[in-house]
């Protein structure tokens, strides 16, 4: 295998069953036995697949005047943009509220991130374990997660009638066009950040993990001091509670996705006044909540 950081070139064998040739007067004469008589071909070739490696995040923090060091997380991610990924993870998980609370981030060793917080920043490990312990389908009560999230963050107060429908409907296709790793491998998720108050192109991040792509995106946004007051998070797939949680932490008022939301994602978006838009296509989309942010008058 030949690795190119985000993608790895591998050898594979492509299996192809060619269509059989028939002598018949119509398709109704083809039976199951004839369909199975096609020629099987095996063709060796090379291909590119998305890279996936573990990144361990170690956290150093002060507790009662003494420095402590503890593993915060191990993230399976696509290498590259690790600085943005770690910063975004710290923000979206509520470890810090601004990057000014981080004293240092060291990425000298492969697959290891050393984070040192400012001395006055306290770390409540029990709170993190209560709020962020679960992933989709793990069985932890969703309503309990929402209540814990509400203790950490206030609902947003987004501007009314600021987002034009034609703008939001174009975002998923623009994201797809900018997903270079997906076009190369077909094996990555994408997340984009669109800002209404700038003329900048869609900011895009990719990763084998949906959550990682969003964290990388948030890390870039916070490092660049981007304004998120009138912004939209664009997702290449479905909308889970965890992704809405990240938008809440980053104070992003709109989520636009290609796929469907879960019921808890909708409930969470409603609670925090986030517009949630799924199944977005060129001329239609499902608006699950937050319609007041749409500029519907011509």
UniProtKB/TrEMBL annotation:
Matches recorded under Gene3D superfamilies: 3.10.20.10, Cytidine Deaminase, domain 2
Entry superkingdom: Bacteria
Cellular location(s): Cytoplasm
Active site: 138
SUPFAM superfamilies linked to this entry: Cytidine deaminase-like (SSF53927)
Membrane-crossing segments per the record: none
Swiss-Prot/TrEMBL keywords: Cytoplasm, Molybdenum cofactor biosynthesis, Transferase
GO terms, biological process: Mo-molybdopterin cofactor biosynthetic process
Record InterPro entries: Cytidine_deaminase-like, FdhD
Principal location listed in the UniProt entry: cytoplasm
GO cellular component: cytoplasm
A single MF term (Gene Ontology): sulfur carrier activity
Keyword Transport appears in the UniProt entry: no
A Pfam match: FdhD-NarQ
Function: Required for formate dehydrogenase (FDH) activity. Acts as a sulfur carrier protein that transfers sulfur from IscS to the molybdenum cofactor prior to its insertion into FDH.
HAMAP family listed in its UniProt record: FdhD
Family: Belongs to the FdhD family.
UniProt protein name: Sulfur carrier protein FdhD
Organism: Thalassotalea euphylliae
